[in-house]
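task queued by scheduler; priority normal; single chain, no ligands, no partner chains; default sampling; output format set to structure tokens
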Amino acid sequence: MQTIVAAWRDGVSLWTVICGTPTSQATCGLSLLAGLALLSLAIYFTPSSEAPSSTNDPTGKPPTTRKRFGYDRTPFTYIRNSVLGATSTIFFLDMVLARHSASMVHFEVGEATVGMYGIFRVWETCFAGIIDGIGLPYWECLPRSGVRTERTGQDASSPRLKDGSTSSHRQDRAKYTLDLLTSVRGVSWINDRKFSILSSRTERDRSEPPVPLRVFLRKRFAYLVLCLVLVDIFDTLNKSRHWTDAEDVVSAILAGSSKREVARLEISYRHPVTSLPWYQQPPFVFSVCVLTQLALEVFYTPLAIFCVGLSHLFPSMRLGINSNAFLSLFHNPISLHTRTVAGFWSAWHHIFKNSFQRLVDPLVYLFGIPNTPNHARRVLKFVLTFAFSAILHITLMHRTQRFSLRPYYELGGHDPVLRNRILDAIWTPPWADLDIILFFTSQAFAILFERSFILPLVSWSNRRIHPRSSVVLLRLWTYHWLFYSGRWWSDVWVRCGFWAPQERVVLISIVRGIWNGDWRATG
């Protein structure tokens, strides 16, 4: 294990250590497949107790839809899940710590993000239930009037709870495993099923009747084209100026430039957006938000087109996938309809809500706070969720910087003074990166401030504020805060090289092709 850890420090994959395979995207794929295989076994073999434990529901849903099956607390379950979880975590860590793709920052961070999400799923499956006793999400059969199931012969018009992990039928357990493994928001691939973790917002969208295949494909292709055009527009905006990078700072140090010039370059490198005049900052802050959302859409939309099309093209495979299995992540590429800071983050976190919830809930349980809606529990979950989000993003960003900045350290040669000067100018330790820490941790306190002061202020009946004026005041507060705090995250985004000229996020640029003839976006 020490050999693997030492290899990770140098960006080398464990497959290179064990099998001699060169570290590349192939080793990343091997780690992903191995981690998913072990995680699938953990889901398949994780039993739950038959007696469901009800939870309080502040939204008023029927009690049957809010039940969870308890975790089976047996020594064999602990041992098996610990072995499977620890082994799969090693493979997912290999995706995070090894440098499989050195060509583009987007690829590096994308692979590491998938690895981190895999670690979250391992924690949710193998370890979280050991602490708080909550089992895996279970299937809920959607009511279908007058339809009888072939296996049980029961009328399927009434909702029936089914815990896939305790099913006696191996085929059902395999379906449950694949369904849960590939589900992010609680949406099931099977038409008559949903998971108990499905949010009310997504459930409302899924209650709509599925659209015909032709309409679905036409809308999704048009949506994909719109997303790609927007990516091209914002990428052109971001690369319309030169951003100070580590090479500029190191070149000035090696050239013997004055301390004032080096200090100016260092500030421009560490704070590329916030060092600009205030009126130039909003477009780039907005661009970071939009491109992050579009990156998810550009990956998700082709996957939806492929899976739904495959299900209709080969009905004999009995995939049973319709358009409702792939609901839109966002209702539009540029989501500006939110009125509150909490609404903005709810739109983002609904994708990974269950992963963060299962990450935080066991820790809240250890604090001795009961699993009932109360102010202390809500505040603690807010703070812990954004704190873990900060740790996640610090890990991803500093992993990328550690590899990309390493060649510059060697330019100092054997002169320790010069090497330390270069190191101090371009490297920020993870625990001292205030941009990431401030951005994520401050969001929890902004939401609490909003609920305690902003919302009562604009909805106070004695003020007699017109509803439209209330909406305007809320949006002024929300946009001001998001743009102000978003500058910190934008500094990190640019400093890590996402907007470097060599980062090609589009293969063909229509905007730059018409503008200056750079159709391949190489300039």
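post-processing summary
- The beta strands are 48-54, 67-71, 139-141, 160-162, 193-195.
- The chain has 18 helices and five strands.
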